[in-house]
Amino acid sequence: MALTNPQYETMMRHVSRALSSLPTSVAQLVYLASLRDPYTGTYLHEGWITLATPEEVNSELRRLHLKNFNDLLDSGLAELCRELKDYFGSLGVSESKVIELWLELEPYREMMPRGCSPLQRALFISQMEAALRVLGCLPDLAVLEGPASSPPPLPVPQPRPHLGN
Description:
- The protein is an all-alpha fold.
- It contains six helices and no strands.
- The longest helix is centred in the middle third of the chain and has 20 residues, at about 55-75.
């Protein structure tokens, strides 16, 4: 039976609390990506390394980043649109300006964790671009709520009254 380090458990509670305080999976993904040094790929949080080793912090944040990324990747386009809309709404800037900026600068490319496959990367980029374009054209996401694969059923024709001779 492996013993757990109480300080490591405390660090994990802090990490869990920080992530659960963020309103969307996109916000969590942005946050986790911000903890990664872009030059070394190492995750670092100055407060959490007082509770666990830098290696433990790096390992756990990397694992959580990959898990969050995969969960978001599996969510589908409609859910991604909702997540982005909610996240953009929390920024305090016009949604259309954020969409325009994200389409131009593509900051979502920095949100991908190390360890994801080239196929996952390509899928994530295409889903983000599609979601941003959908949000740019359809600010009201109610359209996405209906079935995507088939049109609504046609009305049932009413029988004509039969006129007697």
